[in-house]
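[Meeting: bench + compute handoff]

Bench side (C.D.) handed over the final construct sequence. Compute side (W.E.) agreed to return the predicted structure before the next meeting so the bench team could plan truncations. Sequence as handed over:
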Amino acid sequence: MLAGKQSWIFDSKPVITATGTVGGPFEANGAIPEAFDLLHDDLWIGEDSYEKAQTILIEGAVTETLKKASLKKEDVNFMLAGDLVNQLTPSSFAGRTIGIPYLGMFGACSTSMEGLAIGAMIMEANGARHVISVASSHNTVTEKQFRYPTEYGSQKPPTAQWTATAAGACLLEKTGNGPVVTKATIGRIVDMGLSDPYDMGGAMAPAAADTIAAHFRDTNSKPDDYDLIVSGDLGQIGLPICRDLLKQQGYDLDHSKFQDCGLMLYKEDQPVMAGASGPGCSAVVTYGHLLKKMQKGELKRLLVVATGALLSPLSYQQKESIPCIAHAVSIEANGGMS
């Protein structure tokens, strides 16, 4: 199973048999609204706090996934879930309601692929029959925690990114119809000394390049083995930096080969500065948009490299730099999907 120093090859090829994606009003007006199973027209989603609203996003994504798979929550062995909030409260509170045995995951915006990789490893070890992995984010919750409450109306620089209000879930099974998870590379923490919380893309780009290069080395693969490689949310700033860093290592990836989930979610005329971000970003773009392309035969092999900035309000206030991470998962076509 272990390949090289930091990668796994899944001989059993766990199957993604169903997915569920939920978004908010900004995502409904975005570039790929068809990627969502459910879209809410209000950030509050009928709750009295944004944190509770994020819990509803998670519950919705899991419910949609189970409905498509014709499974009950009692049929699922484990739920792997994560978000950006202190102590993962939206994920944990959703786990309280859903009742599936729960593992909380934190990798900041890399959580989607961290959860998928760990879920595939559990399946590879015959540790479960059904595993759900879900990642989420909420724009106003994140603004309140890491920056300023939305009501404050603070101006943001063009390097800043817009946290997606979204949750994406997938169901892993040992057999069935759907794309299969074939490989994963667990990233190292890379910190280049950047400390600007309004430039996540620039901070995360070196970690993404490090993981992509490690994936190619460990798995004896090359860029042409994939129809598409996508980063999680490097955005307009981080994506070209990552391309330059990979080129220095001998990997020349142009736009047709290497794209970014954070640049796919919204339209160009939406005020998202450098693009989308948040754990929900790569989750919904992967599970709701890219896997549908795979289902249509437009993609056969996909490498998703979710990126995360591992700062906290406390570390920023203490003038710390930003440690960053990226996790890569290889997904290949293998029939239909719910």
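W.E. noted at the follow-up: The first strand starts at residue 2 and ends at 3. C.D. will use this when planning the next construct.
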